[in-house]
């Protein structure tokens, strides 16, 4: 039986809102980076490094990483609970889905910690 | 002659479902799909399907007609026939009992979940609970649902999680009572819907709107429920 224990939030409203807000943050980040690179076609490493050392830029990057993590969690969870189910794949599906959910959460958290390490350094 | 291909399955006889082909003479008339089924049943009395009012009111004869769910009694051949071929299957996603008859228990279980009746514990007035014309108008486009299941069985989210996702038909009915000024259980109703499945498995693909034989819009009703859930955190 498909459960909601591994859902990002137990509330459908919160999941729905997080999915939309995170999409807006990611879009804003992509637009900003694209415009910045188009406006600075001959960008040097020093200039790129300076941009990414600004506190505002680091916060923006961190927010985007958190958005990617939460967006991926909710989206992949939906896909797994739709398609990796007993109904579609038989009795082994429940354990396969739970393993995939644990792997998904682990990968997302590792990427998030890795991104924080890159942005802020430990 | 029209080529008619019909899904056949009798679990007491057949190992698996198969499509049976018939040749049908329409005599140049734009018959309804139900007329074709009725005439073919005379030819082959073992063919099983549900029907009752034959005028789009009872919702009994929902079937998949050339790939699109609809009521056989109000779908003319001119809409259903593609390349001189008419293909009739049971509504998808629910277990088949026999031929075109499906087991709708799961569909009704979801309908039951949303408490499809007025809840108002205040003392009943002498005559009736009154509404303004504006309050009554909010129910238009909601109360007309005939529970034919064409929408829910066209919805992939309902196919994959029929025991958890209410489905478009049930949610349309849920909003019918949420929008009713005479109902006082709004908070209780909403609290039962705020989980990741009941409402939020709707991804807005609008298959339900495309197939509804009554021209209703479950996706819009689901949007209203979503807004109510956001405005009234449970």
Automatic annotation (TrEMBL), chain A:
GO terms for biological process: cytochrome complex assembly; tricarboxylic acid cycle. Its cofactor is heme. The chain crosses the membrane at residues 21-39, 59-79, 99-120. It is a multi-pass membrane protein. Pfam families: Sdh_cyt (PF01127). The keyword Transport applies. GO terms for molecular function: electron transfer activity; heme binding; metal ion binding. Pathway: Carbohydrate metabolism; tricarboxylic acid cycle. A ubiquinone binds at residue 83. Heme binds at residue 71. This is Succinate dehydrogenase hydrophobic membrane anchor subunit. It comes from SAR92 clade bacterium.
From TrEMBL, chain B:
Two distinct, membrane-bound, FAD-containing enzymes are responsible for the catalysis of fumarate and succinate interconversion; the fumarate reductase is used in anaerobic growth, and the succinate dehydrogenase is used in aerobic growth. One of its GO terms (biological process) is tricarboxylic acid cycle. Pathway: Carbohydrate metabolism; tricarboxylic acid cycle; fumarate from succinate (bacterial route): step 1/1. Keywords: 2Fe-2S, 3Fe-4S, 4Fe-4S, Electron transport, Iron, Iron-sulfur, Metal-binding, Oxidoreductase, Transport, Tricarboxylic acid cycle. It catalyses: a quinone + succinate = fumarate + a quinol; a menaquinone + succinate = a menaquinol + fumarate. Its EC number is 1.3.5.1. It comes from SAR92 clade bacterium. Belongs to the succinate dehydrogenase/fumarate reductase iron-sulfur protein family. This is Fumarate reductase iron-sulfur subunit. Binds 1 [2Fe-2S] cluster. Signal peptide: none annotated. Pfam families: Fer2_3, Fer4_8. Residues 2-94 form the 2Fe-2S ferredoxin-type domain. Its cofactor is [2Fe-2S] cluster; [4Fe-4S] cluster; [3Fe-4S] cluster. InterPro entries: 2Fe-2S_ferredoxin-like_sf (IPR036010), 2Fe-2S_ferredoxin-type (IPR001041), 4Fe4S_Fe-S-bd (IPR017896), 4Fe4S_Fe_S_CS (IPR017900), Beta-grasp_dom_sf (IPR012675), Helical_ferredxn (IPR009051), SDH/FRD_Iron-Sulfur (IPR050573), Succ_DH/fum_Rdtase_Fe-S (IPR004489). SUPFAM superfamilies: 2Fe-2S ferredoxin-like (SSF54292), alpha-helical ferredoxin (SSF46548). Residues 135-165 form the 4Fe-4S ferredoxin-type domain. The keyword Oxidoreductase applies. The keyword Thylakoid does not apply. GO terms for molecular function: 2 iron, 2 sulfur cluster binding; 3 iron, 4 sulfur cluster binding; 4 iron, 4 sulfur cluster binding; electron transfer activity; metal ion binding; succinate dehydrogenase (quinone) activity. It is an enzyme of class 1 (oxidoreductase).
């Amino acid at each position: 039986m498909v459960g909601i224990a591994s859902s990002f939030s137990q509330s459908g409203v919160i999941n729905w809102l997080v999915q939309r807000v995170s999409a807006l943050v990611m879009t804003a980040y992509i637009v900003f980076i694209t415009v910045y690179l188009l406006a600075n076609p001959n960008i040097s490493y020093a200039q790129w490094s300076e941009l990414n050392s600004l506190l505002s830029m680091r916060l923006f990057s961190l927010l985007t990483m958190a958005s990617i993590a939460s967006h991926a969690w909710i989206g992949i969870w939906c896909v797994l609970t739709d398609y990796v189910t007993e109904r579609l794949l038989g009795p082994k599906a429940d354990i396969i889905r739970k393993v995939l959910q644990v792997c998904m959460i682990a990968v997302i958290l590792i990427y998030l910690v890795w991104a924080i390490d890159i942005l802020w350094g430990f | 002659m029209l080529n008619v291909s019909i899904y056949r399955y009798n679990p007491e006889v057949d190992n698996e479902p198969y499509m049976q082909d018939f040749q049908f003479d329409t005599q140049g008339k734009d018959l309804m799909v139900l007329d074709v089924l009725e005439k073919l049943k005379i030819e082959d009395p073992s063919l099983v399907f549900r029907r009752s009012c034959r005028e789009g009111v009872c919702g009994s004869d929902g079937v998949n007609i050339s790939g699109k769910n609809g009521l056989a009694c109000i779908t003319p051949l001119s809409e259903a026939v593609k390349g001189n071929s008419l293909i009739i299957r049971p509504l998808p996603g629910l277990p088949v009992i026999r031929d075109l008859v499906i087991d709708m228990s799961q569909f009704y279980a979801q309908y039951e979940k949303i408490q499809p009746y007025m809840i108002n514990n205040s003392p009943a007035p002498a005559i009736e609970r009154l509404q303004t014309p504006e309050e009554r108008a909010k129910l238009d486009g909601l109360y007309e649902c005939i529970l034919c299941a064409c929408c829910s069985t066209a919805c992939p989210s309902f196919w994959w999680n029929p025991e958890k996702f209410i489905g478009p038909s049930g949610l349309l009915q849920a909003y019918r009572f949420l929008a009713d000024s005479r109902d006082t259980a709004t908070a209780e109703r909403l609290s039962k819907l705020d989980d990741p499945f009941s409402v939020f498995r709707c991804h807005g693909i609008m298959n339900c709107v495309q197939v509804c034989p009554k021209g209703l819009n479950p996706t819009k009703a689901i949007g209203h429920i979503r807004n109510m859930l956001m405005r009234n955190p449970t």
